[in-house]
Design brief:
The chain has about 160 residues and is mainly α. It contains five helices and two strands; from the N terminus they run E-H-E-H-H-H-H. The protein has helices at about 15-20, 35-55, 60-80, 80-90, 100-140; strands at about 5-10, 30. A two-stranded antiparallel ribbon has the order 1-2. Helix 2 (about 35-55) runs antiparallel to helix 5. The chain is elongated, with a radius of gyration of 23 Å. Mean pLDDT is about 75; it is low at about 1-25.
């Protein structure tokens, strides 16, 4: 099931509201299609396991290179420009027909980068939850009803929509 949901790593509007004293965020690290990212990551991990268990001839290595390059291109489509640049620098595409060891190293690099990306997403989500919890506690501490936005309290019987 495809999704157009975006997962951000870093501060979003809610987190900025919660902690306005923080410095403005840098470039937004985002993933536009998390389901596609997970499918590609799972496939690359399985390929890495298969290459560890078997001896691969030249035709097999050529095919693995094609799959690797296609996966690399597909990943770039779902990543923000800053993550695309990081991927290109840390996990460069393979040149020519690689040896078995080159395939294993390249796939391990890619799997490691993807796992780091997933851990970064989890950390960002945890930070956002902690910031939302802190804002909720602050509202409770001030005695404001949690359903109202923060701001000056409304005066009972004061001017309203009807005079």
């Amino acid at each position: 099931m495809e999704t157009d949901q975006t997962i951000d790593q870093g501060s979003d509007e809610q987190a900025q509201t919660l902690a306005p004293q923080q410095t403005p965020p840098g470039p937004q690290e985002a993933i536009t299609e998390p389901a596609k990212l997970l499918r590609i990551a799972t496939m690359v991990r399985e390929l890495l396991e298969e290459t560890r268990q078997a001896t691969i001839d030249e035709a097999g290595r050529a095919r693995l290179r094609e799959i690797y390059l296609r996966s690399f291109d597909e990943l770039k489509e779902v990543l923000s420009p800053d993550l695309q640049e990081e991927l290109a620098v840390l996990v460069p595409p393979m040149e020519a027909v690689p040896t078995e060891s080159e395939i294993r190293v390249a796939q391990a690099q890619l799997v490691g980068w993807l796992e780091g990306l997933f851990h970064g997403i989890q950390a960002a989500l945890f930070a956002q939850q902690a910031a939302a919890r802190a804002q909720f506690e602050e509202l409770r501490r001030r005695g404001l009803p949690t359903g109202q936005p923060p701001g000056p309290p409304q005066q009972p019987g004061g001017p309203g929509a009807y005079l």
